[in-house]
What we know:
Elements: H1 2-31, H2 42-55, H3 68-79, H4 81-96, H5 99-125, H6 132-138, H7 142-179, H8 185-204, H9 207-236, H10 263-271, H11 290-319, H12 333-343, H13 346-380, H14 387-390, H15 401-421, H16 430-458, H17 475-497, H18 500-520, E1 530-531, E2 536-537, H19 543-550
Helix pairs in contact: 1-5, 1-11, 3-9, 3-11, 3-13, 4-10, 4-11, 5-10, 5-11, 5-17, 6-7, 6-16, 7-8, 7-13, 7-15, 7-16, 7-18, 8-13, 8-15, 9-11, 9-13, 13-15, 16-17
Amino acid sequence: MFMVYLGLLLFLIVGVLSVYIGAVALRKSGQSLHQSLAQHSSYVRYMQDKHELNRFGYAQQLTRYAGAFSAFGASFSTLSVLGGALFILGPAVAAGGPAIVGIGWPLLALFAIATSCSLAMLASAFPLAGGCYHWAAACGGRRLAAMAGWLHLCGYILLTVVTNLFCADWINEMVGRLLGFDSTGWSLGGIALLMFLTQAAACAKGATSLGRIWSAMTWLHALFVLGLVASLITLSWPGIFPLELLYDTAGIAPASSDSSLPFIVGLLLLQRLFVGSDAAAQLAEETVDPKINVPWSIYLSVVYVFIFGFVMFVVLLLHFPLGAAGYGSYGVLSIWIMDSWMGWGKALLWCLSPIIVLICWSSGLGAMNTGARMLFAMARDEAVPVSKWLSHISERYRAPVGSVVCTALAAIVIAAVVLSSGWRGSGEGLAVQLMLAVIIAIQLACAIPIALKIRARRQGIITAALIGPWQLGKLSPVMDAVSLVWFIASTGGALWLLNGSMLAAACLIFIAFIVYVEATFNNMKLKGTLRTRDTIAFTRMKMDEMIRIERKFPQQ
Length: 556
């Protein structure tokens, strides 16, 4: 029982720490000079946000529609607790044992909360669609900013591919069971293609449609998770196994289990559920009062994923009939979930399946939209090829349609290559390798601006321009240091677990990025960054030019 009490104490400590950090951030934002103007009209709030964007050197072209809940929904949907339970929890526990949830999940959440704080502080200071690309540039690393942008873009394209292929695989299997036919690779590819195309269409519709989708999906996501947990507790509490299972490092697994995989694989697989919290940052130019709403969305999405995920994962593991016929490994957890719903009747399954599909689809939508907005932000600074087309904003949809199309096509091509190479192996399978690549790319992209900020602090050049209203005061350097150490350590672990071919491909792509950045650096508009003590402008665009552009995109 000692390990049980220790594990629950760890969960409680992380929960209390998250509340304390939230209270500090709330107090600091209240003490800042920033005024949210929430009591004023939408036009007044829009003008405030537009002038903030103009100070950074950009015209307001995207529609400011997303509110606080929509921005939160973008990050929360991209993280996706339900998708984690269906597609990642089983392989993670098979690799690391049940203790990966009881002990590993709170530890992961502890570091994820620290990293979300660092990202939230940067997002509060620079609420721009480029996210880590602009953050790195503001902290003094112009070349590294371009590298961060490319890594972030590639990471989210891969995340879109992995999310959609997991979901399409599940749909393929579920439809095959319901209709009684054998699923094939062609049907899997067709379902995945349909998901990519519908997500691209939703991204191209702009913030108005996206805000409504993510608001609805967030409520649906939370209610479904709570309903699933409540149904399991009501029908079969206290479950098959005692709570001690989650804190037994030896685990309870038969000899046929694939629990021989290293514990670190399980941790890194579960860490995927904390990768994507910065999705709200790419909506900054479409969010009302982004200096407050975006950082809170980044932070709270991680906290709620921690709480919802812990409760859901614990209930699932305690009820999973490990060792029963057909369930000899935690790797078949998703199959048990499907079998359980089949046992409740096909009618119920027909009702539940569309909800699951919508929730997982919205997760892929968040990843695709994040990648498209990053591509748009870089194209606007001429940091990518064919920048004029990629940075064009549709006057009808108020969205960077060219960037959306390019991101979707890249994801489709990669998905086709992945499917032709063999999808979903065990242990060192392609699915695991792709998730490791996602973690490496996105975490490196986020680590670059944090490292540059730490360097600026050590050199004593932190100015008012680098500090937003969402701050943690004396805790800020601690959070940045912990975040950087965690990003380096976890990225190193993921690199160590990559197989030879994937590692070689990653190295070649990284070298190509470096060569391209160096070749195009002198032509980037970003080299014209203007700095004062209170502001940082990323372009030399004049106000009259901004007004001329903004006349094409009336907001009211």
